[in-house]
Amino acid sequence: MKPIPLVLLGGVAVVGTLGAGLAGFAGLTARRVEAALPPQGRFVEIDGNRIHYLEEGSGPVILMVHGLGGQMRNFTYALVDRLKDRFRIVVMERPGAGYSRRAPGASARLSSQADVVAKFIGALGLGKPLLVGHSLGGALSLAVGLQHPKAVSGLALISPLTQPQDTPPKAFAGLYIRSPLVRWLAAWTLATPMAIRTRDAVLGAVFGPEPVPDDFATRGGGMLSLRPRTFYSTSTDLVAANEDLPGFQARYATLKLPAGVIFGAGDRILDAQVHGAPMADQVPGLTCETIDGAGHMIPLTQPERVAAFIESMAERAFGADA
Questions:
Q1: Residue 229 maps to which CATH number?
Q2: N or C: which terminal CB in the chain sees fewer CB atoms within 10 Å?
Q3: What is the pLDDT at residue 18?
Q4: Per the domain annotation, does 7 fall within a domain?
Q5: Is the peptide bond before 209 cis (omega within 30 degrees of 0)?
Q6: CA separation (Å) from 166 to 163, 174, 241?
Q7: How far apart are CA 243 and CA 108, in angstroms?
């Protein structure tokens, strides 16, 4: 057996040291972020998933579900306060997102997450809420409407993912890692420093053509994306996102719930002409509206208009009780 060259041993040592240093930096960053932005709500276990949720207000129930890489602060930033005087607002963080934990071995497919949402509604005794979904949360809301139509009263879809996509949005391309092992290694080495380095470009795409709010990192929860487990879960969600959409699309015509879509006309993540306009022909009775000059993050940047859209959908879903 030939001896291992010293240069190879040295290279392994350097790589190991670098990896350990990056992992240490990622862990330290995560601890600092969580100290600055602790959980806002309560926890409930659903099929092994530890779900973080927040409740505000009273009245007919509105359940809000955020998008890819998001968390409840995307809604508490500006939207919840505009609605809580008239409605009981429940904001849940999807399995693996924010402070929610995905059950070991659980699938990230939208169909599986829809089952969790339906059981969450039952566990909290929410009756039949109006389901509000943003971005990937919009696709999840559609999944709930198709699989558990008796669990909700209507669907209010904000900048939703509705149509199958062969490739992810350019801003999220670095998250598309199919191998769970590679995904985990990336999460604990390169993900945090790369997120810091590319932050302005990514946020520019996510919010554009509108400006990024100065306090998005804190009040909007943006800093939570710097944690390794956020990267891992977001990548897992992205890889799984398209698996169920073709089947869902084929069944949109069977939806009987009141449903509506609102989009920013300048959305740089999900094109309103691709994911919004076609839904008027695919879902019976669906209404579709756009906001000129707005981007993807309209729950934060256009809260008055989005709140009005949700209130109009609540009137359709709840009738005289809204």
A1: 3.40.50.1820
A2: N
A3: 61
A4: no
A5: yes
A6: 10, 15, 11
A7: 10
Q: Domain of residue 165: give its range.
A: 35-321
Domain count along the chain: 1
Q: Which helix (H) or strand (E) holds 301?
A: helix 298-301
End-to-end CA distance of the chain: 79
| Residue at 148 is within a domain | yes
Whether residue 111 contacts residue 244, with contact meaning beta carbons closer than 8 Å, is answered with yes
DSSP type of residue 259: E
Q: Which residues pair with 91 in a beta bridge?
A: 54, 64
In this prediction, residue 243 carries a pLDDT of 94
CA–CA–CA angle 236, 191, 168 (5° rounding): 45
Q: Does 208 fall in a domain? A: yes
Nearest 5°: CA angle at 93, between 90 and 94? 120
Distance between CA 139 and CA 242 in Å, rounded? 10
pTM comes to 0.92
Q: Under DSSP, is residue 163 helix (H, G, I), strand (E, B) or coil? A: coil
Instruction: Check if the beta carbon of residue 159 is closer than 8 Å to that of residue 262.
Output: yes
Instruction: Give how far Cα 121 sits from Cα of 32, 55, 233, Å.
Output: 33, 13, 22
The two three-digit tokens of residue 209, written as one number:
């053509």
How far apart are the C-alpha atoms of 297 and 70, rounded to whole Å?
11
CA 233/CA 2 separation, integer angstroms: 43
Q: What is the pLDDT of residue 7?
A: 45
167-189 tens-digit pLDDT: 899 899 999 999 999 999 999 99
Residue at 91 is within a domain: yes
Which residues in the chain land under pLDDT 50? 1, 6-16
Give the largest Cα separation in the chain, rounded. 83
The percent of the chain in helix, strand and coil, each rounded to the nearest 5, is 50, 15, 35
Encode pLDDT of 112-135 as tens digits. 999 999 999 999 999 999 999 999
